[in-house]
Design a protein that fits this description.
The protein has helices at residues 22-29, 90-97, 107-119, 125-128, 139-149, 175-184, 197-202; strands at 2-7, 10-15, 48-53, 56-61, 74-76, 189-191, 211-213. It is α/β, with parallel strands linked by helices and 220 residues long.
Length: 220
């Protein structure tokens, strides 16, 4: 599947298998190892990335997100949070100043979630960080870092533009297109958020065969 998306501010095109996870692709193909594998089932938040589309920026789990789901979206990993000149994002600076990192394994995921919350003007930090776990139980300084960063302006480099893309068969954009594709592939798997289907692959090691992704279907 040919997938076109923005990665840390650069538009990329990738020919990828339908069920390769974003986490595996980032680490194994791009060498972006800041995105960590913890639970590999969407629970711990160590693999959190920022994904932006026409609905805005969200923090998502790369371990159960399939790479083709990024078609027409913008992606930022922890490596893409700092500025082109190396300037730290406000949440990164705050994590240093407030001593928010202990063993460090969970830190990239926390920082990305904080950056998404910061971009969206969120101040309900407990809710913003609810999807991230710290086994060192160092939550207090992390929340203090989020509070300290909240008053800082959003860096201009972190606001991503959505890349222009063409319609692709594996990501139909209307319910009629879904129905037409599904009629031609009646044994296929339809994937929306992949919070369940992702585990079929990462834990159950299932071969899904033909798949279509519904995240670009606007009338469902």
């Amino acid at each position: 599947m040919l997938v076109r998306f923005s990665l840390n501010g650069e538009t990329v095109e990738v020919d990828a298998p339908p069920t390769v996870t974003l986490l595996d692709w980032l680490r194994e193909e791009r060498g972006l190892t800041g995105t960590k594998e913890g639970c590999n089932e969407g629970d711990c938040g160590a693999c959190t990335v920022m994904v932006t589309d026409e609905r805005g920026a969200r923090a998502l789990n790369a371990c159960i997100l399939f790479l083709p789901q990024l078609h027409g979206r913008a992606l930022r990993t922890v490596e893409g949070l700092s500025g082109p000149d190396g300037a730290l994002h406000p949440v990164q600076s705050a994590m240093v100043e407030k001593h928010g990192s202990q063993c460090g394994f969970c830190t990239p995921g926390f920082v990305v979630s904080m950056a998404v919350g910061h971009l969206n003007g969120r101040t309900d930090h407990d809710n913003v960080l609810a999807g991230n776990l710290c086994r060192c139980t160092g939550y207090a300084p992390i929340v203090r870092a989020a509070e300290a960063a909240a008053a800082k302006p959003v860096p201009d480099w972190i606001v991503d533009e959505i890349p222009e893309t063409e319609t692709v068969a594996y990501a139909p954009e209307s319910s009629d297109a879904v129905a037409e594709w599904y009629e031609a592939h009646p044994d296929a798997t339809l994937i929306a958020g992949a919070t369940d289907v992702g585990l079929w692959v990462t834990k159950g090691l299932r071969d899904l065969g033909d798949v279509a992704f519904l995240n670009r279907c606007r009338d469902l």
